Amino acid sequence: MSQEFDFTDHSHRRFNPLTDSWILVSPHRAKRPWLGQQETPMKSTAPEYDEKCFLCPGNKRVTGGSNPKYESTYIFQNDFAAVKTDQPDLQVQNSGKDTLKDRLIKVEGVRGNCFVICFSPKHNVTIPQMSIPALEHVVGAWQTLYNDLAKQARDDHKPFKYLQIFENKGTAMGCSNLHPHGQAWCLSEVPSEVSQEFRSFDKYKHAHGADLLGDYVKLEMEERSRIVLENDSFLVVVPYWAVWPFETMIVAKTKVANIAQFSEKQKHDLAEMMKHLTVKYDNLFETSFPYSMGLHQAPLNATGDELDNAWFHMHFYPPLLRSATVRKFLVGFEMLGEPQRDLTAEQAADRLRKLDGDHHYTEKL
């Protein structure tokens, strides 16, 4: 064939070095007509205070306790925690004879604790509508929780190994309470997705004598085609291997293993990136943009390779594909074969880069 390969029109696969996996990119599919399910655009009409909300200041929670009349970021233990600190040991029965059951049926107990993080006392705001100083309080609360749980693990022998901080924004991502909040699950083991990243970091360092994300930051700063935002401390990029249409990653420009190591400057710069990125998201389709977001960093009290390989970064996985009403589904081939996307990372980055990240679309209404 004499035709030259066109990355914006021809199918190809891209490698994800973080998870040691591949993704199919089919940019020509973005031209197909859409007759499938359409979401309802998110237009918040919520009041600043909702007397029925379990997370608003001063309100009773579902289990009977009450929130204090908090005025900034507020953290409390989840009333419906996915893991418990105190529970019986799981006695694993293993014959020691390499039976099929020994090989294939494996289980282990897990302990931990879960927390709810109310970003703001205001019921009707989201991260893009909060000020940078208010978001610095959120980052500071994450930092305090990380430090407190690490101390409890050291001094009180609590079964805390890894703290997964995350937010599900919007009903499309399963959020059951629209008060601005995130969660933090602290487990006695490092979760599978994070463990895979650490294996990839270790493999890359042994092969190349360098940090995987450190090298990736260098490459993105040289090529610049996938950078959405940048400040002194962080890059926001659409990863080369992104799965979700407008997936992004906030990654530290210099090595910092965990949020506890942040300087005041880095706290400010992360808050700034979160603000400007999420404003761009909302401006993209002029809707309250749903996503799942999470921090990846070193385990609590990490030493040796765990600490040396860690590089702080955040993943944002938003599902919207073409508009405020058309979302991406990971089904069919994506579930049975490998993930697939309909526009390239470079195309997504270009669209996000051109959007205003300072002024929220609602300010113009």
Written account of the structure:
This protein has 365 residues and is α+β, with helices and mostly antiparallel strands. The protein has 8 helices and 12 strands. It has helices spanning 100-104, 132-155, 192-208, 212-223, 264-285, 304-309, 333-336, 345-354, and strands spanning 12-16, 21-25, 74-77, 112-118, 162-169, 181-187, 227-230, 234-237, 248-252, 291-296, 313-317, 340-341. Strand 1 and strand 2 (21-25) form a beta hairpin. The protein is globular, with a radius of gyration of 22 Å. InterPro entries: GalP_UDPtransf1, GalP_UDPtransf1_His-AS, GalP_Utransf_C, GalP_Utransf_N, HIT-like_sf. It catalyses: alpha-D-galactose 1-phosphate + UDP-alpha-D-glucose = alpha-D-glucose 1-phosphate + UDP-alpha-D-galactose. GO terms for molecular function: UDP-glucose:hexose-1-phosphate uridylyltransferase activity; zinc ion binding. UDP-alpha-D-glucose binds at residues 29-32, 62, 78-79, 168, 174-176, 183, 328-329, 333-334, 340.
